[in-house]
Design a protein that fits this description.
Elements lengths: L9 E4 L2 E10 L1 H13 L4 E5 L11 E5 L6 H6 L13 H4 L15
Antiparallel strand pairs: 1-2, 2-4, 3-4
Length: 108
């Protein structure tokens, strides 16, 4: 799984210049990221990665056409919204929870 290390990775998919969001993700992760990113107004570009062997699972690269997008900034500056309008947390981004309230809000 990718990390939120602040690095801005960019390149091309086909003829389209992109910012890479995550590489080597499975179909479920690809679908989650695509839906979340499109909901937040980004144009998503997907690429199937080449399999080393036929029996290997299909993996994908997820990217956006916004060349200044950085998921670390968008998540920690609380700019990104879930489909139901809450702010995306780090745990939500990594699909560790569907809860959109940070832990320190739980007792409030």
């Amino acid at each position: 799984m990718a990390s939120l290390d602040g690095k801005h990775s960019f390149g091309s998919i086909g003829e389209t210049r992109v910012t890479f969001v995550e590489k080597g993700v499975d179909e479920a992760r690809k679908d989650f990221l695509k839906q979340l990113l499109e909901h937040n107004g980004f144009e998503v570009v997907l690429e199937e990665e080449k399999k080393k062997a036929e029996e290997d699972p299909q993996l994908y690269t997820v990217a956006v056409t916004d060349m200044v997008f950085n998921p670390t900034i968008w998540i920690f500056e609380r700019k990104m919204k879930t489909l139901d309008g809450h702010k995306v947390t780090q745990d939500y981004w990594f699909q560790r929870t569907t809860d959109t309230k940070p832990q320190y809000w739980k007792n409030s």
